[in-house]
Write a structure and sequence with these properties.
The chain is 29% helix and 25% strand. The protein has helices spanning 18-25, 34-49, 67-75, 85-93, 110-119, 129-138, 178-188, 209-224, 251-269, 282-285, 319-323, 412-416, and strands at 3-5, 11-13, 16-17, 29-33, 55-60, 79-82, 101-103, 123-126, 143-150, 172-173, 192-198, 231-233, 275-278, 289-301, 305-310, 329-331, 340-345, 354-361, 370-374, 394-399, 402-407. The longest helix has 19 residues, at 251-269. The protein binds ligand LLP. Ligand LLP is lined by residues 60, 63, 104, 161, 163, 200, 203, 235-238, 279-283, 319, 323, 378-379, 383. Substrate binds at residues 282, 319, 323, 350, 379.
Length: 421
């Protein structure tokens, strides 16, 4: 996270004055430190380069996507994961090479499969047995696939963002024979070519144990079942720091540890080391972003609580309500110590519309002040809604003190554009 106060006591991000930005372009606005995003991508590259393995890095666009974000991923030599026709369309419109796009999802629709095939994507990550027949039916030439397996491993993370446990809706269970069946079906298909195996055990994972254990389970199964692959994709899910006390995944230590472990397991099993792939989303963009709000009503219930309400809410910040996620906040236009404990509330008609339950802010906070909620770069814009007909925020990339708009604020007109009059 790269926010700091300048000598005039104004909060900056990537050397850009956030007060001026809020005044010029309005709020709520999500602002990204572009250099931070690039640095994260470079850190992953460097960590893998040191390991003397074949690797492919991919950005999980569900964390945050738009045309400029896709272009940035391209410039930083990342492939792209998409999970819907909309994410794929965004990537194609950004001019991204379709061969470097991978299509995920537990229920790809016929339209999505047909569109992805027409675009000429690199590979599908197959997530269900009946999907194999569907892809085969629509394909007219050979198409690479990875099979997403369910290893039956629990990542230590919030229940809603765990995906590797046995009863998860994702992947084909190794233990229950579905993964094996998937491999056979792909082998017997006319057009599908088994390029590799994929797993993703969950999100916000701080440690390497889960991934190492899972890789071991998967590789053992591959060896004993006599399945050869070119690529092993170990998913994303690397943790970020939301608040003090959180630890973000240590890329420089963690990646070598995982890779070394996989190399060792392959050696031990006498199994050829496949190309390794990861697909981080959150750890690329979360800490790069902040959301700027303007303070409106302040309501103090004596001896009970002080509510500081802002001009956005769960429409652009759903993670607190959904996962009880924690965030830090900073006053943008003055550098004063935060001695008051307040609740930062949104403006939507819902009691659960809270951004931060116990935020520290200076007692001087008043209507018209600007706040920056930190680490909002992942799963904020991408999970935004129009509940209460609230417009989606604008998004900016800042770099070297300059701001460029990457997504315009949604207009009122856009809110009714599909309504039939
Ligand atoms: N690969 C697969 C197959 C995934 O399902 C995901 C995330 C990723 C990669 C990227 O994971 P990341 O590196 O971003 O943790 N809305 C939730 C997160 C849902 C994640 C879904 N899958 C949140 O706001 O925490």
């Amino acid at each position: 996270m790269t926010v700091s106060y300048n000598q005039n006591g104004v909060l900056t991000l990537g050397n850009t004055n956030l007060k001026t930005l809020a005044q010029s372009f309005g709020t709520p606005t999500i602002v990204y430190d572009e250099m931070y995003i690039r640095q994260q991508m470079r850190r992953y590259h460097q960590a893998f380069q040191k390991m003397d393995v074949n690797f492919v890095l991919s950005y999980a666009s569900k964390a945050f996507t738009c045309i400029q974000m896709v272009k940035l991923a391209d410039e930083e030599n990342f492939d792209l994961d998409v999970v819907s026709i909309g994410e794929l369309y965004t990537a194609i419109e950004a001019g991204f090479d379709p061969k470097r796009i991978h299509f995920h999802g537990n229920n790809k629709t016929k339209d999505e499969i047909q569109y992805a095939l027409k675009c000429g994507i690199g590979y599908f990550v197959v997530d269900a047995l009946d999907e194999i027949a569907l892809i085969d039916q629509y394909a007219t030439e050979s198409i690479d696939v990875l099979i997403r397996v369910n290893p039956g491993v629990e990542a230590h993370t919030h229940e809603f963002i765990q995906t590797g446990q046995e009863k998860s809706k994702f992947g084909l269970s190794i233990k229950h024979g579905l993964a094996q069946k998937g491999v056979e079906m792909v082998r017997n298909s006319e057009h599908l070519h088994l390029k590799g195996i994929h797993f993703h055990i969950g999100s916000q994972i701080e440690e390497t144990t889960g991934m190492k254990e899972t890789a071991k389970i998967v590789l053992k199964w591959l060896k004993t079942s006599n399945i050869n692959i070119e690529m092993l994709n170990i998913g994303g899910g690397f943790a970020v720091k939301y608040v003090d006390g959180d630890s973000s995944f240590n890329i420089e230590e963690g990646i070598p540890e995982i890779v070394e472990n996989i190399k060792f397991t392959c050696h031990d099993l006498d199994y050829p080391l496949p190309t390794l792939s990861i697909e981080p989303g959150r750890s690329i963009v979360a800490e790069a972003g902040v959301t700027l709000y303007e303070v409106g009503s302040i309501k103090e219930i004596p001896n009970v609580n002080k509510y500081v309400s802002v001009d956005g809410g769960m429409s652009d910040h759903i993670r607190t309500a959904l996962y009880d996620a924690k965030y830090d906040v900073k006053l943008v236009n003055r550098n004063e110590p935060g001695e008051d404990t307040v609740t930062i509330a949104g403006k939507l008609c819902e009691s659960g519309d809270i951004l931060i339950h116990e935020a520290k802010l200076p007692s001087s906070v008043q209507r018209g002040d600007y706040l920056a909620v930190l680490s909002t770069g992942a799963y904020h814009y991408s999970m935004a809604s129009n509940y209460n007909q609230i417009q989606k925020p604008a998004v900016f990339f800042v770099s070297d003190g300059k701001a460029r708009e990457v997504i315009k604020r949604q207009s009122l007109r856009q809110l009714i554009i599909n309504d039939v009059k």
